């Protein structure tokens, strides 16, 4: 073996060593047309030298398909150099072989033996290195390619990712030159499809991990702390009774009801009963199509509930098995989160900029997939927001109303008020379903555990707290309180609907007559900020209207208990956090223009308070 090694020329011995220092010389000039290896892939793409750093031994290249990056000199070669041969002297000067095509001349199977080689040199290298019977058996599938190597006395070595052969006979998918379309696709995938998360929300991985336990605890706490026996914070310690029988926590029937409800909504969503509209422009410039048939789904769902009630089916199942329903919805929310996360691992899936940090616990909580779909028709995000949460709340309220009628033989006025106001809230959301396509949860946030659990559990379970309280604790409201409830509801709805209409109509058509009457602040980004109308009083008037309506729902339970007001407290904390986060994002986005806007519109949600 030592004789065979000594028989090799000094140039070859020198070329087999890795360069230490200094870095390889930069042979190409600024402006040269080259091929460069795309970072993270195994393909070379056309590019142009933009700059170079001799100390680091790298070039700054502008890819023809878009994108700029610093590439090591060993991964850049001149376009015209692909067809040239590289001599042994060149290899000695540049041990790492700047051109991938030059390396392939020594390693490509089946290359004809050079006639200038001596007989002794050919015989010296005839025996393949590190060839064992076991290795030959494992490589039986590549016998045809290896046979040509053995005839030439050359042993094929496994190419490293940064040493891709560009002239191998019978090019593989990873080694062939990419077409311009493929180059553009790779660029979009790296820069637009899968952006890395640069800033944590919800307290980062630690906050996400804590939320996995806090969210279910809130749902179960609301149930155990507010039941028929007691619904008072002062009696929580003595009134909470945790069941020991697992059958009281979950049952096959409750899982069947939840899964059946979700399958019905998925089936109704696929029916082309409404108009198809385009969503917000995504990062890659595309726009998804959405079927706006929310009202159709609501009417059919309420009709199914009415038919079941008419035929004396157990429509009070939600109330009678409320603890089981919480567990069933929690299980389904977790399973749905797992399915969506697995969908996000497929190549080419557009990821959310909030859930692609590389930390599994954080990404699973926030959601990696931006717009997960099944068969390009069933949009999971729209199902979760517009169907499971909203329609689920209406059906839960109707179950409570039916239970009160079954128990007392009548339906009280507070129950009618609660169910009617919440039904109108859902009806408005589905009537103007197109408006929710521009909200942050649809356009930017991914589908993860947070969205799935909040929509499936907090929507139909937590926000039906007032109706469930009225079943267990009937109340009589004085006329003054009823008038206050109606005023809060009407004024809150007007503020909510008017502000959303102003915002969405301006987004769709800034040149319309109604949009032209609004005063705007022009920013350096070329966009405008509304500073008149309701948006001239506070920065989030729609949040104010939402809070007023929610407070009206809580007042229907009277003023003697605090527990029914928990939904208002949760919503208030959520909207305050969202307003602060929006303020931080806009400050980074608009910079000095945002300071000017804040001087004009001073308050975030409540005038003169916050």
Give a nutshell description of this structure.
The chain is of the alpha+beta class and 610 residues long. It has three domains: 2-109 and 156-190, Roll (SH3 type barrels), CATH 2.30.30.140; 197-476, no CATH class; 477-610, no CATH class. It has helices at residues 2-7, 10-15, 88-93, 100-107, 119-124, 133-138, 143-152, 180-193, 204-225, 236-239, 252-270, 294-310, 317-320, 322-344, 360-366, 380-408, 413-431, 440-443, 449-462, 465-472, 479-508, 513-516, 541-555, 566-590, 592-600, and strands at residues 33-37, 44-53, 58-63, 68-72, 76-78, 275-278, 289-292, 373-374, 378-379, 520-522, 528-530.
Write up what this structure looks like.
By secondary structure, the chain is of the alpha+beta class. The chain has 3 domains: 2-109 and 156-190, SH3 type barrels, CATH 2.30.30; 197-476, no CATH class; 477-610, no CATH class. The protein is 52% helix and 8% strand. The protein has helices at residues 2-7, 10-15, 88-93, 100-107, 119-124, 133-138, 143-152, 180-193, 204-225, 236-239, 252-270, 294-310, 317-320, 322-344, 360-366, 380-408, 413-431, 440-443, 449-462, 465-472, 479-508, 513-516, 541-555, 566-590, 592-600, and strands at residues 33-37, 44-53, 58-63, 68-72, 76-78, 275-278, 289-292, 373-374, 378-379, 520-522, 528-530. The strands form 4 sheets. A 5-stranded antiparallel beta sheet has the order 4-3-2-1-5, with no helix packed on it. A hairpin with a 3-residue loop joins strand 8 (373-374) and strand 9. The longest helix has 30 residues, at 479-508.
């Amino acid at each position: 073996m030592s004789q065979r090694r000594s028989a090799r020329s000094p140039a070859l011995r020198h070329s087999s060593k890795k360069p230490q220092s200094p870095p390889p010389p930069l042979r190409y000039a600024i402006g040269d047309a080259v091929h460069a290896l795309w970072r993270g892939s195994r393909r070379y793409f056309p590019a142009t030298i933009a700059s170079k750093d001799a100390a680091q031994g790298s070039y700054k290249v502008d890819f023809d398909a878009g994108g700029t990056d610093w590439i090591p000199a060993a991964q850049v070669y001149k376009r015209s150099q692909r067809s040239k041969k590289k001599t042994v002297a060149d290899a000695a000067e540049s041990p790492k072989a700047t051109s991938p095509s030059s390396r392939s001349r020594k390693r490509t199977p089946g290359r004809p033996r050079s006639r200038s080689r001596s007989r002794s040199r050919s015989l010296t290298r005839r025996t393949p290195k590190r060839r064992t019977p076991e290795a030959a058996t494992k490589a039986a599938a590549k016998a045809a390619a290896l046979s040509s190597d053995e005839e030439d006395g050359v042993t094929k070595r496994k190419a490293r990712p940064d040493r891709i052969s560009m002239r191998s006979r019978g090019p593989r998918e990873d080694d062939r030159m990419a077409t311009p379309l493929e180059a553009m696709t790779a660029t979009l995938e790296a820069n637009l499809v899968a952006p890395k998360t640069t800033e944590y929300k919800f307290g980062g991985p630690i906050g996400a991990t804590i939320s996995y336990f806090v969210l279910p605890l809130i749902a179960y706490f609301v149930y155990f702390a507010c039941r028929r026996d007691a619904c008072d914070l002062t009696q929580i310690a003595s009134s909470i009774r945790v069941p020991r029988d697992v059958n009281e926590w979950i049952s096959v029937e409750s899982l069947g009801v939840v899964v059946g409800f979700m399958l019905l909504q998925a089936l109704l969503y696929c029916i082309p009963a409404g108009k198809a509209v385009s969503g917000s422009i995504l990062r890659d410039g595309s726009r998804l199509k959405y079927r706006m048939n929310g009202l159709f789904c609501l009417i059919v769902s309420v009709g199914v509930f009415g038919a079941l009630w008419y035929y004396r089916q157990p429509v009070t199942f939600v109330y009678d098995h409320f603890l089981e329903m919480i567990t069933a919805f929690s299980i389904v929310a977790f399973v749905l989160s797992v399915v969506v996360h697995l969908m996000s691992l497929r190549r080419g899936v557009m990821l959310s900029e909030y859930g692609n940090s590389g930390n599994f616990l954080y990404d699973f909580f926030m959601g990696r997939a931006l717009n997960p779909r099944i068969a390009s028709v069933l949009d999971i995000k729209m199902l979760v927001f517009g169907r499971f949460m909203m329609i689920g709340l209406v059906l839960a309220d109707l179950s409570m109303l039916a239970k009160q009628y079954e128990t007392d033989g009548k339906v009280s006025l507070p129950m009618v008020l609660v169910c009617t106001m919440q039904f109108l809230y859902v009806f408005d959301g589905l009537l103007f379903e197109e408006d929710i396509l521009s909200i942050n949860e649809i356009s930017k946030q991914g589908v993860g555990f947070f969205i799935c659990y909040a929509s499936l559990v907090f929507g139909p379970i937590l926000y039906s707290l007032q109706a469930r309280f009225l079943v267990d604790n009937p109340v009589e409201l004085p006329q003054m309180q009823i008038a206050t409830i109606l005023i809060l509801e009407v004024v809150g709805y007007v503020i909510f609907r008017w502000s959303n209409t102003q915002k969405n109509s301006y987004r769709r058509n800034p040149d319309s007559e109604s949009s032209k009457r609004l005063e705007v602040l022009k920013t350096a980004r070329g966009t405008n900020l509304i500073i008149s109308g309701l948006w001239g009083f506070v920065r989030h008037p729609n949040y104010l209207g939402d809070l007023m309506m929610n407070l009206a729902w809580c007042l229907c339970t009277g003023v003697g208990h605090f527990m029914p007001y928990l939904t208002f407290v949760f919503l208030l904390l959520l909207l305050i956090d969202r307003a602060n986060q929006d303020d931080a994002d806009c400050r980074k986005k608009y910079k000095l223009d945002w300071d000017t806007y804040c001087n004009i519109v001073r308050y975030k949600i409540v005038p003169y308070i916050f």
